[in-house]
Amino acid sequence: MSGRSAVGLARLVRDQEVAGSNPVAPICFPDLFSGAGVLKVTENNAAITLKPLISQVEIKQRVRELAKEISRDYAGANRDLVVVGILKGAWIFLADLVRELTVPAKIDFMTVSSYGASTKSLGVVKIILDLKCSIAGKDVLVVEDIIDTGLTLKYIIENLSLRHPRSLKLCVLLDKPARRQVKIEPDYRGFVVPDCFVVGYGVDFAERFRHLPYIGYIEEIKE
Ligand code: IMP
Ligand code: MG
Q1: For this structure, is 148 an active site residue?
Q2: In this predicted structure, what is the pLDDT of residue 140?
Q3: How far is the CA of 216 from the centre of ligand 1 (A)?
Q4: Angle, to 10 degrees, between the axis of helix 56-73 and the axis of helix 91-98?
Q5: The one catalytic residue among 145, 148, 175, 204
Q6: Which residue from 60, 72, 145, 222 has the least number of CB within 10 angstroms?
Q7: What is the pTM of this model?
């Protein structure tokens, strides 16, 4: 494993997980809940080093600001807001965001599959779990954890727009513009992040680290 960058390796492991052949066994880590300092996790023989990037306090503050902006934009008797969370990554962000809204909202969810390595450039996305409600005539706000290449969200937005919502907007917690492959801009964004592999606050590395209350990035994976 050594010799490959942390971000490259993290993406490789994620793609293997999608393909059902993830070689990394479950990990055990006793000390994840400190946002301060470097976190070293040993998994089998691999040592994963996480570094904090965005603290709990910064996230809370920014989520509050976003909710204020969204509440202002969707205020008015003729609005019918449906917040659509993209599982699993958006669940913590969505839960915090909607509790700060001051306008009525309905909540629904979608689960989409990530594309595997071979279909990556095509942006092939499959809907695993679809919305329960019709969004025809509604004001839809899609909430996602992170926009990276933009392929997933481009598919989702195109798919939802065919269902005739009255309006359709996009809110992401994290934006990684350096990796964008398609033209798509979030209407609301929490933070711009550099091209690193981030985890925490709902965002995973092969299903790990979603429960961290802060955002960190994988600095190193070493065997
Ligand atoms: P896309 O490349 O914009 O289509 O992003 C697809 C999905 O990849 C996102 O919804 C995330 O679930 C995941 N992803 C992208 N970048 C990262 C990262 O840095 N850490 C963890 N997951 C990521
Ligand atoms: Mg996601």
Answers
A1: yes
A2: 98
A3: 14
A4: 60
A5: 148
A6: 72
A7: 0.85
Which atom of ligand 1 lies at the shortest distance from residue 144's CA? 10
Ligand nearest to the CA of 195: 1
Question: What gap in Å lies between CA 137 and CA 130, rounded to an integer?
Answer: 18
Strands 215-222 and 46-54 turn out to be: antiparallel
Tell whether the model's pLDDT for residue 166 goes beyond 90: yes
Measured from the Cβ of residue 192, the count of other Cβ atoms closer than 10 Å reads 10
Mean pLDDT for the stretch of residues 7-11: 73
The pLDDT of residue 219 is 86
Question: What was the pLDDT predicted at 220?
Answer: 80
Q: Give 144 Cα–ligand 2 centroid separation in angstroms.
A: 6
Q: pLDDT band at residue 43, thresholds of 50, 70 and 90? A: low
List residues near ligand 1 (CB under 6 A).
89, 114, 144-153, 197-199, 203
54, 146, 173: which to mutate for ligand 1, most atoms within 8 A of CB? 146
Domain 56-191 sits in CATH 3.10.310.10: no
What are the extents of the domains in the chain?
6-55+198-222, 56-191
Distances (CA, A) of 209 to 54, 145, 168: 14, 14, 30
